[in-house]
Design a protein that fits this description.
This protein is mainly beta. The chain contains no helices and five strands. The protein has a five-stranded antiparallel β-sheet, with no helix packed on it. The chain is elongated and about 50 Å long.
């Protein structure tokens, strides 16, 4: 319900509000998938893939994929080594990639 908002009628159904924001002026689709394989109590490998496309005049597209391995040193301490790749099509940014080492502590 949107009581007291100028120019908007109160209704029980969900409504859509269009704003002047370039990210939402066009249809945008996003797709994410993650695969994870647990080899033992201490070792896990994974892969992730993300695709975001925007249907505008530039046909912008961002693709991201990652692969990595995670080692559980203790139940509360893990180390992760991964490779991450970003590809930009018609976005105005250069493609990028990185190798990441991550330490996670949970308590």
């Amino acid at each position: 319900r949107l009581d007291g908002v100028t120019g908007v009628q109160t209704c029980a159904l969900p409504i859509s509000v269009r704003r002047s924001n370039l990210a939402f002026d066009h249809d945008t689709s996003a797709w994410f998938t993650k695969l994870e394989q647990k080899w033992s109590d201490k070792w896990t490998t994974f892969g992730r893939y993300v695709l975001v496309e925007q249907d505008n005049a530039f046909k912008q597209k961002v693709t991201n994929w990652s692969v990595g391995v995670r080692h559980w040193y203790t139940p509360t301490l893990s180390f992760e080594l991964s490779y991450d790749s970003l590809k930009f099509d018609n976005v105005g940014k250069e493609d990028d990639s990185l190798i990441r080492f991550k330490t996670s502590v949970s308590f």
